Amino acid sequence: MNAGQPCWIDITVTQAADRERLVDFLCDVFDWTFEVTGPDTGFYTMLRRDRADVAAVGQQEHGAGRWVTDLSTDDIVGTAIRVRDAGGDLVREPMTVMRAGTMALASDPTDAVFALEQQAEGADIMMRRDGRGYFSLGRNGDGRPADLRPVILVEDLTVVEERVRSAGGTIYASRVPIPGGFAATFAAPVVGAPLIASVNAEGIT
Predict the structure, then answer these.
(1) Percent of the chain, pLDDT > 70?
(2) Closest to 147 (Cα-Cα) out of 108, 178, 117
(3) Burial bucket for residue 55 (CB in 10 Å: 0-12, 13-18, 19+)
(4) 42: left (phi over 0), alpha (psi -120 to 50) or beta
(5) Which of 199, 194, 190 has the alpha carbon at shortest distance from 68?
(6) In whole angstroms, what is the distance from residue 185 CA to residue 173 CA?
(7) Distance (Å, whole) CA 127 – CA 10
(8) Is 189:170 a contact under the CB 8 Å cutoff?
(9) pLDDT of residue 166
(10) 161 phi and psi angles, rounded to 5 deg
(11) What would the pLDDT profile of 44-83 be if each residue is shown by its tens digit?
């Protein structure tokens, strides 16, 4: 995994019912499957496509209800220093996360929150991306607090938008032209955190 490359996305909510509804929504929209862990890990729920981990939904007392994109690093302490030097801040200092490695939560000068992740040597962790879930970075431009939005690559944007509506989600922007294709911005009925589905020009009807 190259340093600086996005390597994971997840979202944390406060209630079990919200976690379960959000997982059901995402699986309905993207044809994902899931596996729930135990209370020691906050019922962290792995979302998978074709047996590859693509995202997760967690449950914590102070869950923020927003998507967080992890950026890989080979030196989390040095990267944390550079975040501060560049005008950002550390929301949470580097800490060991089970056998996965070391993580920190940071924000950029616009208060967009992201995570840093230094993978433990030999860790069998969710950094492979050979499923159908992918992501890149986006940013609010309408006066709301900045965020970094995951982008999920899909095969048929029309079908995804129909599933979002059927599952009770809200579409903020439909079939927006982007370089090489189209994108739709939407949110689940549980949380208003934006998520983007993207497709190449052939995958829209």
Answers:
(1) 82
(2) 108
(3) buried
(4) left
(5) 194
(6) 5
(7) 13
(8) yes
(9) 97
(10) -65, -40
(11) 999 998 888 889 999 988 888 889 988 889 999 999 999 9
Phi-psi group of 65: left, alpha or beta (phi > 0 → left; psi -120 to 50 → alpha; rest → beta): left
Q: How far is CA 24 from CA 17, 67, 80, 112, 163, in A?
A: 11, 16, 35, 27, 12
Furthest-apart CA atoms within the chain: distance in Å:
47
CA–CA distance, 136 with 20 (Å, rounded to integer): 25
pLDDT at residue 90 is higher than 60: yes
Alpha carbons 84 and 120: distance in angstroms, whole number? 24
Q: What pTM, to 2 d.p., does this model score?
A: 0.84
Q: What domains appear along the chain, each with residue ranges and CATH number?
A: 6-122+130-203 (3.10.180.10)
Residue 10, pLDDT > 50, answer: yes
Q: What is the pLDDT of residues 107-165, one digit of tens each?
A: 998 888 899 999 877 554 444 443 334 455 555 555 566 777 888 888 899 999 999 99
C-alpha 201/C-alpha 161 separation (Å) is 16
Complete DSSP assignment for 82-141: HHHHTT-EEEEEEEEETTTEEEEEEE-TT--EEEEEEEPTT---TT---SS---------
